[in-house]
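Comment on both lines for my students:
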Amino acid sequence: MNERPIAPPVAETPVDLDWLGEQIPYRLFQQCIHCGLCTASCPTYVENGDENDGPRGRIYLMRSVVDGRLGVGPEVRRHLELCLDCRACETACPSGVQYGRLIEPFKIEMVRKAPPGKGPSRLQKVVLHHLFPYAGRVRAALWPVRVLQRLGLMKAVEGSGLLKLLPPTLRNMQAMVPPLRRPSNLAEVLPAIGPRRARVGLFLGCVTDAMTPQTTEATARVLRRNGCEVVVPRGQACCGAIHFHSGAEAPALDLARRNMDAFDFEDLDAIVVNAAGCGAMFKGLGHVMPPEERERVARFVAKVKDVSEFLAELGPIPPTHAVPVKATYHDACHLCHAQQIRAQPRGLLAMIPGLELVPLAESELCCGAAGTYNLTEPEMSRRLARRKVANIEATGAAVVASGNIGCTLQIARQIREQGLPIEVVHPVDLLDRAYEGGS
């Protein structure tokens, strides 16, 4: 393997090797045979061509740190920070390397022990830990934007240059905000339409429900149209992914416990999730929760289903209203790589009368959203978003669908900035139109 030499570590991050050893069984490093088949699937390697910005190189770096042969200096830290944790390498790996279980503890430890001036800024921590995980706070923060949008003044404000006075993190956040709808207001229990086939819990999420409440409502309607009684627990919370991936492990696990308490999962056929990142977080809890809680966690995780996964297993009722549009589908990383869900959303889209589904080049390459990556690594995030949108534009599709809120916001932002006439939706939005007749 040809690796670019690593500079001698300077101002090393003091990582806790004992803690990392507890989190990462050493055999996980040994599974990597350094064949390099993962590199072509890695977004940062595809963009940079740097071996240390690919999965094989990063595994080599992490193993060297654990072995005590290398410190976490600025250059090592940078290569690891630049990873999107998209887990495309897991799909490509012939040896079954669980890359996510390697990089995630390293990222947590680097954030916890970050030297001054490194890691998330104070503003980013406030946004990530005290705003995004709380849908009510997100709605309140978006209130001025909603008012400006309704008055038709948002473009004038953007053109005035006033937004340039905001810190970069807030400017970046504002650019991601889509046209806002009224908040969803679902009853706690929604009856099935027709004979009841299942009783399911609906996970609302935080950013998803605040930014795209129409998708929350569409998900509930589609489930009801398929004979599901839908339960929407009031005590549910953020899935914890935002905290977990930004180094705040304890609050993330507390949020997981709140959700397990909120959903009476023993009495539900499934807990339906419409955001890939949330579903992946829940399904991975068995690796991060304390051993004494894992039996209960396993029962909870067994009920968690992506909406497309659940409908495919239930047997969807064919919709009858035509949606005459050319559409393409982008695979959200935490749906296709973390959950191995690919065929199900495409199968649902193929059911829609009149919809022409066309393939997308590099469909499984990350769009650059990657949870909060577009806030913490904006330059690489933009590069990947432009690459994704160029591929979408090349399909000639009028609509692009994706099963994750981060992807839809990221892609929609780039489409708006380029002035392209392409709509960005969740697959369930299109399915809802086909059931409801476009209402």
